Amino acid sequence: MSSDVKILAPVKAEQQKPENPKAGSTTLKLLRRLVFLTFGAVLMAVGLEIFLVPNKIIDGGITGVSIMVSHITNVPLGIFLTLFNLPFLFMGYKQIGKTFALSTLFAVVIMSIGTYFLHPVDPITIDPLLAAVFGGVLLGIGVGLVIRSGGSLDGTEIVAILINKKTPFSVGEIVMFINVFILGSAGFIFGWDHAMYSLIAYYLAFKLIDITIEGIDQSKSVWIISDKHKEIGDALTQRLGRGVTYLDGEGAYSGDSKKVIFVVITRLEEAKLKSIVEDWDSQAFVAIGNIHDVKGGRFKKKAIH
Fold first, then answer.
1. Minimal CB count within 10 Å: which of 58, 82, 91, 111?
2. Where are the alpha helices (DSSP H) in the chain?
3. CA distance 10 to 123
């Protein structure tokens, strides 16, 4: 008696590549960055072509130089915005990195295209003061969004970083000197009244950049030294909704041991914090400083009882 025996080879299980949980998050972050870079660059283009340029008002940095050269040569502004920023893109790539350079290139191209299409559009106002105010606000928000998204719309800061390495001047001082020279040059081209309006626009843009980057609800770090640290700490937790940390400190002069209260609050909560501390100890030492970013920990506000 015979029987046919079939030997079946084991089926090899199909190997599946493990899913990368970060892939979707990375895509969303990239999309978010592109959206904010685009929106910031478009706001910059609107501020330039709808408000500043028609009223012969300039901004600082490469943008200001581009406006003046465009006025003299009658060549579209967008061409100079791209050409003048290209060398600084290369510097940015060397000094800061590839992501910064690509983000900057994308934002500059969008801004240049925006100025090209908006150039034929009539300005909303021919009042130079209104143009300086609203143009400066739009420029500040636009530049702030681009910087917050990891890019830049002007190469002046990159130049300042390079000069700072070889001189005793800070980056801020170098930027200010460059922009004073550029804004002063506008007086010879557009007239001194327009140069003064340009200063107004530049100042407003400068302030709005800070607000856009840091947010209206800017965080602040607070150090409090008081003998009533426990009472103040409990009051801050209950009335302000913020967690506090107790640190051990020692006075260098007196040698006395002290408890130091550390807490992070928002700018809007600063007045209330001072009031709480004043209620418990009018002689308490309070030091408050600005924080550009807060991550991790338990910064989320608690319920107030």
1. 91
2. 21-46, 61-73, 77-95, 98-118, 128-148, 156-164, 171-190, 192-214, 229-235, 270-280
3. 76
- The residues, any chain, with a CB within 8 Å of residue 109's CB and separated by 6 or more, are 82
CA distance 259 to 285: 11
CATH number (3.30.70.120, 1.10.3720.10, 3.40.1350.10, 3.90.600.10) of 219-291 reads: 3.30.70.120
Supply the pLDDT for residue 59: 85
CB contact at 8 A, 183 and 195 = yes
How far is the C-alpha of 190 from the C-alpha of 213, rounded, in Å? Answer: 31
pLDDT of residue 300: 58
The CA angle 244-248-249, to the nearest 5 degrees, is 115
3-state secondary structure of 111: helix
Q: Which two tokens stand for residue 40?
A: 């910031």
Per-residue confidence (pLDDT) for residue 14, from 0 to 100: 47
What is the model's pLDDT at position 5? Answer: 45
How far is 284 from 224, CA to CA, in rounded Å?
Answer: 7
Report the sign of the C-alpha dihedral through residues 157, 163, 169, 174, in that order. negative
Tell me how far apart the alpha carbons of residues 31 and 37 are, in angstroms, rounded to a whole number.
10
**What mean pLDDT is predicted for residues 1-29?**
55
* pLDDT of the residue at 171: 61
CB 278 within 8 A of CB 231: no
Per-residue pLDDT tens digits for 225-274? 998 999 999 999 888 888 888 998 887 777 778 889 999 887 778 888 99
* Alpha carbon distance 186, 3 (integer Å): 102
Instruction: Look up the pTM and report it.
Output: 0.69
First-last CA distance in the chain: 90
DSSP 116-130: HHHTTSPPS---HHH
